[in-house]
């Protein structure tokens, strides 16, 4: 597998009047060409900040990349000029945001927004770009594309806007697409269509996709590999089977057990993870999950766990994996099975 992106020891903070928010605290991961990787974790754990760092869209100030490198096809994104970044954004990597209305231009026809990117990055003439824009709208499944290309974003439904965003993001055939909660605002059937669409496009165009989501159903449907984040760190990583059938971090167990399933006994409450994530102004020295972890040991409060290898590609930062730690039986729930 050929590597497309290598994020190494990335640290991102926001310097605010109240102090420094340590949003991303030493994150490393690779993405191969054409691969689909999901980043999951609860609100505020640093998923979007990680994505925005790759796109170099962190507002600076207050944001600052304190440490680490982001190597995209041999170039360190953290060291490029804004001009170089402008070229890369849209042409080599692009992003789909949660709310398309905030990133589509309300005063510009949808077709023109796609064409604009083609004219800028691919130096197409306007006629050719307009033709390609219609083609892209067709590709993302917008019916009546010729007519729709002449409409403004407010004339599109939510699902269509999301498709239009994907069309814009893919117009220049980027090598990497980052989709940050791309389906959260949509109803379930449209969600499924958008996911199908992303999967098809990945197959057709060999685009690598980083999908950020709260929704483990989306992960199971789309991703090949999963990174589980907690308080600015990756606490477990593995392929789909590793994470769904042999998860090792108590936080991952909690995540999986909080997924509603149709056969859920209505008299039982859905499991939730008690407590709140740590304060990112002063993150703890030990495992950030320890205060919420029913298996926490003394060392968990004192030292951040090493990354233990479970199997090839599956690793976890948890002291329970230490050979001297007591053997813990994971709670067996839907999708959580003992290995
Ligand atoms: N522009 C900013 N200024 C100050 N703090 C910020 C800024 N952007 C993000 N943060 C902080 O960084 C931390 C990580 O935020 P991030 O947006 O990455 O969370 P997330 O995992 O994407 O959460 P969600 O699932 O809610 O989208 C949070 O504590 C957030 O408040
Ligand atoms: Mg986010």
Automatic annotation (TrEMBL):
Q: Give residue ranges for domain ABC transporter.
A: 5-256
Compartments where found: Cell membrane
The membrane topology term of the UniProt record is: Peripheral membrane protein
* PROSITE patterns, sorted: ABC_TRANSPORTER_1, ABC_TRANSPORTER_2
Record-level GO cellular component terms: plasma membrane
Q: Which InterPro entries match?
A: AAA+_ATPase (IPR003593), ABC_Ni/Peptide_Import (IPR050388), ABC_transporter-like_ATP-bd (IPR003439), ABC_transporter-like_CS (IPR017871), Oligopep_ABC_C (IPR013563), P-loop_NTPase (IPR027417)
One MF term in the entry's GO annotations: ATP binding
Pfam families xrefs: ABC_tran, oligo_HPY
Q: Mind listing the UniProt keywords for this protein, alphabetically? A: ATP-binding, Cell membrane, Membrane, Nucleotide-binding, Transport
Q: Which GO terms describe its biological process?
A: peptide transport
Q: Which family does it belong to?
A: Belongs to the ABC transporter superfamily.
Mind telling me which PANTHER family this protein's record contains? DIPEPTIDE TRANSPORT ATP-BINDING PROTEIN DPPD, OLIGOPEPTIDE TRANSPORT ATP-BINDING PROTEIN APPD
The name this protein carries in UniProt is Oligopeptide transport system ATP-binding protein
Q: What is the organism of origin for this protein? A: Caldanaerobacter subterraneus
């Amino acid at each position: 597998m050929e590597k497309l992106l290598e994020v190494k020891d990335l640290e991102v903070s926001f310097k605010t009047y109240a102090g420094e928010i340590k949003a991303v605290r030493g994150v490393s991961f690779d993405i191969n060409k054409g691969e689909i990787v999901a980043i999951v974790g609860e609100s505020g754990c640093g998923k979007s900040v990680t994505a925005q760092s790759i796109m170099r869209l962190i507002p600076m100030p207050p944001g600052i990349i304190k440490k680490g490198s982001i190597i995209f096809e041999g170039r360190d994104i953290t060291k490029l000029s804004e001009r170089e970044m402008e070229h890369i954004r849209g042409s080599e990597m692009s992003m789909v945001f949660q709310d398309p209305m905030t990133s589509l231009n309300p005063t510009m026809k949808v077709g023109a927004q796609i064409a604009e990117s083609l004219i800028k990055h691919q130096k197409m003439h306007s006629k050719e770009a307009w033709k390609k824009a219609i083609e892209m709208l067709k590709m993302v499944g917008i019916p009546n594309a010729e007519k729709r290309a002449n409409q403004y974003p407010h004339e599109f439904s939510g699902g269509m806007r999301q498709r239009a965003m994907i069309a814009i993001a893919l117009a220049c055939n980027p090598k990497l697409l980052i989709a940050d909660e791309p389906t959260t605002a949509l109803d379930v059937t449209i969600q499924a269509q958008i996911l199908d669409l992303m999967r098809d496009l990945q197959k057709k165009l060999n685009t690598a996709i980083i999908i950020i989501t709260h929704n483990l159903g989306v992960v199971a449907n789309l991703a090949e590999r999963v990174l589980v984040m907690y308080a600015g760190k990756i606490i477990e990583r593995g392929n789909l089977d590793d994470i769904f059938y042999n998860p090792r971090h108590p936080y991952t167990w909690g995540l999986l057990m909080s997924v509603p399933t149709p056969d859920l006994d209505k008299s039982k409450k859905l499991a939730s993870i008690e407590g709140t994530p740590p304060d990112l102004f002063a993150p703890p020295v030990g495992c950030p999950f320890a205060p919420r972890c029913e298996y926490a040991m003394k060392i968990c409060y004192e030292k951040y766990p090493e990354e233990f290898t479970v199997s090839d590609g599956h690793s976890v930062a948890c002291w329970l994996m230490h050979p001297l730690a007591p053997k813990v039986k994971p709670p067996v729930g839907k999708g959580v099975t003992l290995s």
